[in-house]
Amino acid sequence: MTTPRTVLVTGGNRGIGYAIAAEMITQGHRVAVTARSGHGPEGSLTVVADVNNAESIDNAFTKIESILGPVEVVVANAGITRDTLLMRMSEQDFTDVIDTNLTGTFRVVKRASKAFLKQRFGRVIFISSVVGLYGGAGQVNYSASKSALVGFARSLTRELGARGVTANVVAPGFIETDMTAALPEEQQAAYRNAIPAGRYGQAREVAQAVSWLASDNASYISGAVIPVDGGLGMGH
């Protein structure tokens, strides 16, 4: 039995974020999602917010708190890609990805930590990527932003671990989403051949790992990196 919590999923309007929000609702949690457009699954509270704007994040938290209560679980999922080879990558391509995927996550977690400290409870789950530790050609910016979440989680664990707060990283591999569907077929086949499981993952498989980390059963796990990648990144 998992204690019902107030859960915030950033970028919960599509793909993995949407699946996580839906799974959390199934588990009986009170779920809010932030999105710049669109909305989360049925049963969730959708709040328009931009992780690149601290005031926008503060306003989103204030609204969520007034309707669902203090946020107890944060799933930092919002992210973007600007893939291109290093020699062609503009400084804007690099900073846009870092600002959204890393600094945006900082803004969300910092705002959430106020309630965590007051209630002496908190769960932070960072959605990283196999690329964060495995690397990916043409993804210097994205890989750097995702690997940085590991250091973030482990430092947060050392800061707040004694206050009932855990911080963990889920690192999905190639998951069937709009993003992977947009890849050329030969590239999709090459990636699939590299995966020991021989298939792409499903968004719900990531969501189930996230749900477990948010549950009472994972209260003594912090600073961990949980791969959901069919064996692709073993040891990385």
UniProtKB/TrEMBL annotation:
Domain Ketoreductase: 5-178
An MF annotation (GO) of this entry: oxidoreductase activity
InterPro entries cross-referenced by the UniProt entry: KR_dom, NAD(P)-bd_dom_sf, SDR, SDR_fam
Domain of life: Bacteria
PANTHER family per UniProt: 3-OXOACYL-(ACYL-CARRIER-PROTEIN) REDUCTASE, 3-OXOACYL-[ACYL-CARRIER-PROTEIN] REDUCTASE FABG
Family of this protein: Belongs to the short-chain dehydrogenases/reductases (SDR) family.
Protein name as it appears in the record: 3-oxoacyl-[acyl-carrier-protein] reductase
Species in which this protein is naturally found: Klugiella xanthotipulae
